[in-house]
Amino acid sequence: MKMAETGTPAKDQTGREPKTARGEATRRAILGAAEKVIGRQGFNEASIGSITREAGVAQGTFYIYFSSKDEVFSELVAEMGRMLRHVISEATGGMADRLEAEREGLRAFLTFVASHPELYRIVQEAQFVDPDAYRAYFRTFAEGYRQGLAEAAEAGAIRPGDADVRAWALMGIARALGEYSVVFGDTTPIDEVVDIAHDLIVDGLRKRS
Amino acid sequence: MKMAETGTPAKDQTGREPKTARGEATRRAILGAAEKVIGRQGFNEASIGSITREAGVAQGTFYIYFSSKDEVFSELVAEMGRMLRHVISEATGGMADRLEAEREGLRAFLTFVASHPELYRIVQEAQFVDPDAYRAYFRTFAEGYRQGLAEAAEAGAIRPGDADVRAWALMGIARALGEYSVVFGDTTPIDEVVDIAHDLIVDGLRKRS
After folding, report:
1. Which domains, and CATH codes, for chain A?
2. In contact, A177 and A197? CB cutoff 8 Å
3. N or C: which terminal CB in chain B sees fewer CB atoms within 10 Å?
4. How many CB atoms lie within 10 A of CB B7?
5. Residue A102 and residue B205: Cβ atoms within 8 Å?
C-alpha cells in the first residue's frame, strides 16, 4: 500500500501490465513469504535469502521493495494491525449491543490469530526487534478500544469504569487466550473459549443470589 | 540454589568462610548483574563481559557458575517465577475471601513488576530466547491459578466457570497491566489500576439495575 500511496513504481514501459499492479503483487509475495519465514524462524535466524526463496523471486528483487529485513518486519507488524482492526470492525460494526460486540470482537480476534500464528509471533517479537512498531500497534488498538468502552459507559450500555485501564485489561484477555492456543497449543474450540471468557468479562467472578 | 543442591562448590580450604556461602554470593551478584544488563540491552546485545563488569568480577569467574549466557538467562526466568509465586502467596496466603485474594494477588504482581522491570522484559524475551523456560514459567503459574479458581468455584466462593480458560484470561489481565506500566510508561498509581481491574474481574461490564 505504501508504494501505491507514494505513486511509485511508475508505469512499466515494456510490459502490458502497469508496473504498479505487478509490483504490488511481487511486494505482497515477499511480505507473505517474510511472514512465514520470520514467524517460524524468528527475526535473527530468518535471512533475506530464505525469504526470497520462499517467495520464489531473486534475492535482488527484495531490495526493489524493501531496504532491509528490519523494514519488511516493521511492515508486517503494521499490516497485522490493519488486518486485525479490519476483521474486528467487520465482525462488530453496527452492533447495537456493546456486550455482544465484545463477544464477536473476541471471536474475530481469536479466529484471525488461529489462522495467522506467524503474524502473532512477529508482533510478540516486535517488542525486541522494533519497539516503536510494537508500541504503535498496541497504542492504536488500545485507543480504539478505550473510545468504544467510554462511549458505551456514557450511553449506559455498560457499568461505568475507567475505560483506559479496562481497555488494556480486555486486550490482555484476548492476547493471553490467543497465546494459549498459538504458543501453548491449547485445543479448546474457539467458540467455547469465547463463551467462557465472555461470561467472565460480562458478569465477573462474583456469585449472585 | 542449583549449586547448593548439587553440593558444589565444596568447603574452601584457604579462607575462613565456607566457599558455599561466598560462592553463592558471587553467583547472586552475577545473576543480579545479568538481570540488569540483559533486561536493558536484550539478550543478543548483552555480552558476558558487560555482565561481569556490572557484577564487578573477572570475566572468567562467570564460567565457574554458569556455562553460557543462555544458562544465566534461563536461570533468571526460573528465578522470576519463584520470586513472583513467593510474593503472591505471601500477599494472599490464608485469605478466606477469594475475591479479595484476586485483588491482593494482582496488587502484589504489579508491585513486583514495577520494581523489577528488567526481569519482566526478560520473561517476555524468553519466548524467543528460551521457549521451554517461557512455557514452563506460564504453565506453572496457570496451573496454580487454575487450581485456586476450581477450588473456589467448588466451594461456592465464585460463580462456576471453566477454571482453565479463566486462569489464562486473568493472567492476561495482570500481564497486560504490568506491560502498560513497564513498556508503555503508564503512570496511573498501582492501587488505582488494581481497583479498576478488580471491579471488572469481580462484577464484569454488565449494567445491573
Report:
1. 2-66 (1.10.10.60), 71-203 (1.10.357.10)
2. yes
3. C
4. 8
5. yes
Residue B59 and residue B48 in contact, taking contact as beta carbons nearer than 8 Å: yes
CB B54 within 8 A of CB B39: no
Query: For A203, which residue in chain B has the nearest alpha carbon?
Result: B204
- Whether the CB-CB separation of B134 and B77 falls below 8 Å is answered with yes
Query: What's the pLDDT band for B209 if we cut at 50, 70, 90?
Result: confident
Q: ipTM for the complex? A: 0.88
Query: Is residue A90 a contact partner of residue A47, using CB atoms and an 8 Å limit?
Result: no
Q: How many CA atoms are closer than 13 Å to the CA of B173, on its beta-carbon side?
A: 31
Does the distance separating the beta carbons of A206 and B203 come in below 8 Å?
A: yes
Taking CB atoms and an 8 Å limit, are B188 and A165 in contact across chains?
Answer: yes
Between CA A88 and CA B140 the distance in angstroms is 32
Partner-chain residue, chosen from A166, A168, A205, that has the shortest CB–CB distance to B102? A205
For residues A196 and B1, give the distance between their C-alpha atoms in angstroms, rounded to a whole number.
Answer: 40
Q: Does B73 have pLDDT greater than 70?
A: yes
Residues of B in contact with A177 (CB under 8 A): 165, 168-169, 172
Task: Report the candidate in A32, A28, A37 with the shortest Cα–Cα distance to residue A65.
Answer: A28
Are A207 and B159 inside 8 Å of each other by CB? yes
